[in-house]
Amino acid sequence: QDNSFEQFIINYCNEKLQQIFIELTLKEEQEEYIREGIEWTHIEYFNNAIICDLIENNQTGILAMLDEECLRPGTVTDDTFLEKLNQVCATHQHFESRMSKCSRFLNDTSLPHSCFRIQHYAGKVMYQVEGFVDKNNDLLYRDLSQAMWKASHSLIKALFPEGNPAKINLKRPPTAGSQFKASVATLMKNLQTKNPNYIRCIKPNDKKAAHVFNDALVCHQIRYLGLLENVRVRRAGYAFRQAYEPCLERYKMLCKQTWPHWRGPARAGVEVLFNELEIPEEEFSFGRSKIFIRNPRTLFKLEDLRKQRLEDLATLIEKIYRGWKCRTRFLLMKKSQIVIASWYRRYA
Questions:
Q1: How far apart are CA 77 and CA 132, in angstroms?
Q2: Region entry Actin-binding: which residue ranges (predicted)?
């Protein structure tokens, strides 16, 4: 019920993961259709970049202001941190606080004076500011490192080299928030170089009971996880896309004109192939560099035809090999019979 600094940075990570989900499944998907020249009606969706900016902006972000409070000389408390948030984020549409002078929530009794609320992509979350400054400073880790380095056990000492008094850096160590922010940035950079697959888990009820579905809870998760927009984009778009060269290479055996070799541009070969197979025009579209197939059943049909063709080709190869083998054996036996007969006649 009481969300503090730990839950705040966890939710920040969730926001970044949702952002890359939006980038890869909604934004990139629609931009690819436009880039390939496919006729497309843009589908609106909520982009949570504004929430990520509220947290991680280098000047006005919550983490930046928290670090600034930790560095500031003088009396620094969680209340002074909240006051700073109220000054900088008061007009932000996803930030709520009763202490803000221009707040729209002065009479919101569900929001205590020592808290602030962020409207995340998955709903509103209220954070208790108590402990934010101390947890961000992370002084315990430095004290722990120094204590562990003094241990007599060599392994423990080796695990905490930063506790060595001779190597004490006068530069202020990074805060917990800045370290977490850097780790999240590294994770995002890594994910963007990959082709991730997403599994969205829906919590059916709050009691963790079997066979119980809370309709309101499930609908809330589906709405805020961006699944409705994702389904709309997928239904309006194409289930499969592939560059012309590998597509022609995979399915060219299904058409006499393209098998075994096609002399010409790959796109023209794919057009000939699809016309030969009599695939309905509404089932595919030709992009600048890719073929787009709308329904999975069309792809399954192509795969079934390819599988059958491979079996036919395997049978043909086997038939030719067996014929060659039998003919070779026959010719060898015939040659041997002639040699034997000639020697027998000479003897007789």
A1: 9
A2: 184-206
- Cβ neighbors of 138 (< 8 A, separation 6 or more) are 173, 175, 176
Shared domain check, 187 and 54: yes
Does some domain include residue 329?
Answer: no
Same domain, yes or no: 281 and 182? no
The C-alpha atoms of residue 118 and residue 97 are separated, in whole angstroms, by 9
The Cα-based distances of 311 to 64, 242, 317 in angstroms read 64, 24, 10
User: Is the dihedral angle over the CA atoms 118, 124, 128, 132 positive or is it negative?
Assistant: negative
109 and 245 part of one domain: no
Joined tokens for residue 67: 């670090």
Q: What is the pLDDT of residues 30-80, one digit of tens each?
A: 888 888 888 777 777 778 889 999 998 888 889 988 888 887 777 778 888
The answer to whether 150 touches 163, Cβ cutoff 8 Å, is yes
**The token pair that represents 330 in the structure block:** 């026959």
Q: Would you say 56 and 63 are in contact if contact means Cβ atoms under 8 Å apart?
A: yes
pLDDT band at 307 (very low <50, low <70, confident <90, very high): very high
Q: Do 51 and 182 fall within a single domain?
A: yes
Q: Which residues form the domain of 293?
A: 239-297
Buried b vs exposed e over 87-99: b needs ≥16 C-beta within 10 Å?
ebbbebebbbbbb
- Rounded to an integer, what is the distance from CA 219 to the centroid of its chain? 23
Looking at the fold, whether 186 and 244 belong to one and the same domain comes out as no
Number of domains, the chain: 2
Give the pTM: 0.65
